[in-house]
Write a structure and sequence with these properties.
Length: 363
């Protein structure tokens, strides 16, 4: 990022954490690693539940919150599927993308690249198709753009567990949406069981068709999984990349190529991929000059938000505001936007950061 450096950036100047939280809420942001299904706002989910089951014992947000708790990964998956079971109609998907983008725009997120996993729904509900789901999400995101000015693109998640053949079919079925709301593919699911190499053909085909490529790697599996994502899938970005530190050669490689890491700190703690904040490598990765971006993954499931993720960088890892600013710009750089779009967004970020600095630090 070219431009003027911020002169006064000392966190001590912001005395109250409420004020700091408000500041972080207002900074301009880009979100690159967010699953729409895991970001569903609680009131929207409550609405869906009550629409499907008038006699549901879940009457309010408090009841719902109680249902969304889990203490291990098996329970997490159970809760995840339970929540998805209320998203059954095309109109629900339209509402889903609209409401998620609305809640992001309230945190001054300007641009989002959001995952969705259509197979999780079409697999169980034969009335739905991946194209229909995509179409509906695009409708919702267009409406969100009209109402709130928030821009977004979709990334279809080829969940590893469904295997490469289903992935290939998905890529072929959805390629017609490229340039119309869909921008890329991602690879979620069981990283340790279904290795990235299995999907080399899917990624090769996707690349040919014009999909941009990202893949979850180094979240539950180690550095070798990240190498596979980069070498065998030609992934342009890495989802999480948490365990890159296991291989210094990989760190050097990621740094030299400036391959972006979609870091999601709270997610890593909640899934126990990382035991505690003190062990999370985000601070070191940033200091070492890796292309670190900050994201919220499944904010509803992990009781986080993109705002909280930024706050945590300051409170738990001691990032200065200047470093926070740099991270916010990294997300523009790491996005799949065109160079022109990136430049224009950098201009917006620059202006808003300046205004916020004078509002919060000089006033
Ligand atoms: Zn994810």
């Amino acid at each position: 990022m070219k431009g003027r450096e911020i002169q006064i950036l000392n966190n001590n100047e912001i005395e109250h954490s409420d004020k700091l939280a408000q500041f972080m809420r207002e900074i301009p942001k880009v979100e690159l690693h967010l699953h729409l299904e895991g970001a569903i706002p609680l009131p929207t989910l409550l609405n869906f539940i009550q629409k499907r089951n008038k006699n549901s014992s879940i009457k309010n947000l408090k009841d719902l919150k109680r249902h969304l708790t889990y203490s291990n990964f098996t329970q997490f998956i159970k809760v995840w599927l339970w929540k998805n079971s209320f998203i059954t109609e095309y109109e629900d998907f339209e509402e889903l993308s609209y409401q998620v983008l609305k809640s992001l725009s309230e945190q001054n997120v300007k641009y989002v690249e959001a995952f969705y996993s259509p197979r999780d729904f079409t697999f169980r509900n034969k009335r739905l198709s991946a194209s229909g789901i995509t179409e509906s999400l695009i409708k919702g995101k267009k409406k969100a753009f009209d109402d709130f000015g928030i821009r977004s693109e979709l990334i279809v998640d080829v969940v590893r567990d469904y295997g490469p053949r289903m992935g290939l079919n998905l890529v072929k079925e959805l390629s017609g949406y490229l340039g119309r709301g869909l921008i890329g593919i991602g690879l979620g699911g069981s990283e340790k069981i279904f290795l990235a190499g299995l999907f080399a053909k899917v990624y090769g085909e996707a690349r040919e068709l014009g999909f941009r490529l990202t893949a979850h790697a180094g979240e539950t599996d180690g550095a070798k999984s990240i190498w596979a994502a980069v070498n065998e899938l030609k992934a342009e970005r890495i989802g999480h990349g948490l365990r890159a530190y296991e291989d210094p050669r990989l760190i050097a490689f990621l740094k030299e190529r400036q391959i972006p890491l979609e870091v999601c700190v709270v997610s890593n703690i909640k899934t126990r991929a990382c035991k505690k904040f003190a062990e999370h490598p985000v601070r070191n990765y940033f200091k070492e000059g890796l292309m670190v971006t900050i994201n919220s993954d499944d904010p509803t499931m992990f009781d986080t938000s993109i705002t909280k993720e930024y706050l945590i960088l300051i409170k738990k890892f001691g990032f200065s505001l200047e470093e926070i600013r740099k991270i916010s710009f990294n997300s523009i750089e790491a996005s799949f936007m065109t160079e022109r779009e990136k430049d224009s967004l950098r201009g917006v970020f620059d202006k808003e950061w300046k205004e916020l600095i004078s509002k919060y630090l000089k006033g």
